[in-house]
Design brief:
There is one protein chain. By secondary structure, the chain is of the alpha/beta class. It has one domain (3-228): Acetylglutamate kinase-like (Carbamate kinase, 3-Layer(aba) Sandwich). The chain has 9 helices and 9 strands. The chain has helices at 10-13, 20-33, 46-57, 63-85, 97-106, 122-132, 166-173, 189-198, 210-217, and strands spanning 3-8, 38-43, 111-113, 137-142, 147-148, 160-161, 163-165, 202-206, 225-228. Strands 3-2-1-4-8-9-7 form a 7-stranded mixed sheet, sandwiched between helices. A two-stranded antiparallel sheet has the order 5-6. The two termini are 22 Å apart. Bound molecules: uridine 5'-triphosphate.
């Protein structure tokens, strides 16, 4: 079975309030596609992570401690998705990409995880997992329909890109450093660097659009951006 790693932005699973109907729809879609492809989902921290990090920043300045809280939030969101999927998902949240890969190889289950170590994002974790699996595709399910040349909310002349090279994406982001990406970057710099180094076939889609998400996971034509590596 083909390996597909999906980085599911926290804003998709846990926006301001968690919508059980929406989480249930994502789980239902994953249960359908897992009959045809081996799915690994990395869930982001979204609003939950932000809330805890903001509160803790006023109590403590240690960035690693704040990241650890963020990781806890991603794992909480991962557990919510596991609960929604039920028995077609592995019942626990792996804590490293090697653990996730091992579980995926040995069990016919959807593997759902969150962050791993302080200092990076769940997009990075997804790219890292895709890099150690054989012939994996990577899907970044985020909250925009396409990658744009600039922030479309701020610039009327922003162009939507249905296809672009990874080098162009890095250029749009302003580099591959953790802090180089603008706040609206759909994929952070270190994740882009991994995609480039391992030549991981990558797509960016709106994770709230179930039809699009299902199509891209199954390798069918989809609405979104294809990143050429
Ligand atoms: P996310 O990757 O979800 O960041 O992790 P995000 O910017 O909130 O992305 P969305 O909104 O979910 O798409 C939340 C926070 O958890 C920490 C970081 O502090 C990150 O900002 N984290 C996450 C880590 O330190 N390591 C990880 O492996 C994952």
């Amino acid at each position: 079975m083909e390996n597909v790693v999906v980085s599911m932005g926290g804003s998709i699973i846990a926006p301001e309030t968690i919508d059980p109907v929406h989480v249930g729809a994502i789980a239902g879609m994953l249960k359908r596609v897992c009959e045809q492809v081996k799915v690994y989902v990395i869930v982001g921290g979204g609003r939950t992570a932000r809330k805890y990090i903001d509160a803790a920043r006023e109590l403590c300045a240690d960035e690693a401690a704040l990241d650890t809280l963020g990781i806890c939030a991603t794992r909480l969101n991962a557990m919510l998705l596991i609960t929604a999927i039920g028995e077609k998902a592995f019942s626990q949240v792996p804590e490293s990409v090697s653990e996730a890969a091992g579980i995926g190889r040995n069990r016919r289950r959807i593997v759902v995880m969150g962050g791993t170590t302080p200092g990076h994002s769940t997009d990075y974790v997804g790219a890292e997992l895709a890099s150690i699996l054989e012939d994996a595709r990577f899907v970044n399910a985020t909250n925009v329909d396409y990658v744009y040349t600039r922030d479309p909310k701020k610039h009327a002349d922003a162009e939507r890109l249905e296809e672009l090279t990874i080098d162009r994406l890095i250029e749009i982001n302003g580099g591959t450093a953790w802090n180089s990406a603008g706040a609206n970057a759909v994929m952070d710099g270190p994740a882009c660097a991994l995609i480039k180094r391992h030549r991981i076939p990558t797509s960016v889609v709106n994770g709230s659009d179930m039809e699009t998400l299902e199509n891209v996971i199954l390798g069918k034509p989809f609405k979104g951006t294809k990143i050429i590596v």
